[in-house]
Amino acid sequence: MSEQRPKRQARRTLAERKRIALVAHDGKKDEMLAWAMRWRDELSRHQLLGTGTTARRISKELGLEVEGLMSGPLGGDQQIGARIAEGNLDLLIFLWDPFAPMPHDPDVKALLRLATLWNVPVANNVASADFMFHSSLMSESVEIAVPDANDWVSTRA
Ligand SMILES: O=C(CO)COP(=O)(O)O
What we know:
alpha/beta, Rossmann fold, five-stranded parallel beta sheet, 7 helices, 7 strands, methylglyoxal synthase activity
């Protein structure tokens, strides 16, 4: 089988106000809450969304506006993946639990695959999330390279 991968890249601009997805597995939710508390002011400058339970807890306990999607096991990871494929997500903070097997492991893998494919910055633990949020790029408009979807289809059709 010949390997297929996008041959051309396009550009996408992440605005100053970023669309940030917040996702934490149950064993990581308290860590997520503590991290989000430390970065509350910065988070309030962006557009937030998250899987159901994570989003609900952050908005309830921190008073931030967070769009709640489905809970992860009910399809929330897939919804975030769809936002990525449509170019509607800029950053992903995903505190996944390396000790807990999940019924929706395939969805988790699919989300991480799409984030990698579409060059979306991902933080998988608190230290990475701190590095990300300390970056001056958080308050700037940033151009990133993404696969050229039109070229991909044209060369295959
Ligand atoms: O399971 C999740 C991500 O895979 C998170 O879902 P909840 O935020 O609804 O707990």
